[in-house]
Amino acid sequence: MPPFDFVDSVFFKDTPLTKEKALSLLKEAAGKCDDADLYLQKKTSEHFVFDDGRIKSAGTDFTRGFGLRVVQGDTFAYAHSTDIGEDALKRAAQNLLPVHAEASCGEISPDTPERETSLYAPQDSAALYAGAQKTAFLAQVDAYVRAQDLRTVQATISLSFSFDTVKIMRPDGFEAQDARPLAHFSVRVVLEENGRRETGSCGFGGRYGYDRIFDEAANGGAWKKAADAALAQARVNLSAVNAPVGEMPVVLGNGWCGVLLHEAVGHGLAVSYTHLRA
After folding, report:
1. What digits encode the pLDDT tens for the residues 59-86?
2. Model-level pTM greater than 0.90?
3. How many CA atoms lie within 13 A of 94 on its CB side?
């Protein structure tokens, strides 16, 4: 499905509000004002945290709404609602009518529509995978981490995804829209040896679906690389020794080292000198 058709289906399919009615109400709200636009948005998100061999926390969120803006001269008027419906849009348009009293211009200058492009897949990846599949994936990562290093005493794996759909309409018929996925994965491990514990963490994400995370072939085994990087970091921390202390010779060259010296002692000396004068 083309991205513009997908966005229209999100806002206008199986709802009382049609795109034609939304445009009609937008024109009514605009009247003879200088400019106007209607901003529509729907966003879904979810997150999972796997810890101690089980799902520690999980949650979902859903937000939606619209914003209606009218511009007349230096005056900007806004109305908004979390209900994307014809009645709510009518009330918003009515609330902006006082701005029309100062309006006297002609038609709104049309924008030149840009070429339709799609940077991301217009697909809500969260709905493509059942909760059991996501839990199984997190358990797989946990098992992998513990198998790579038997010193692992804790592995915390986080997985999140959001899908944000927006649409902007103008009275002249110009439309701009986008469907933006965002996935994120992270691993945090704790290694213990001889009573000492150290941590390591790594993660990645991007504007793509869960398939880029779950499928090893699709993203070059990115989740395994992240897990290995977290383990490597913890191992380095576990073998690290304390930095030496005491007086040591310091050699400074010209250039930025002068700035470093100034910041390290210069301000303190200036403050001391000021107090002495006082």
Report:
1. 999 999 999 998 888 888 899 999 988 8
2. no
3. 6
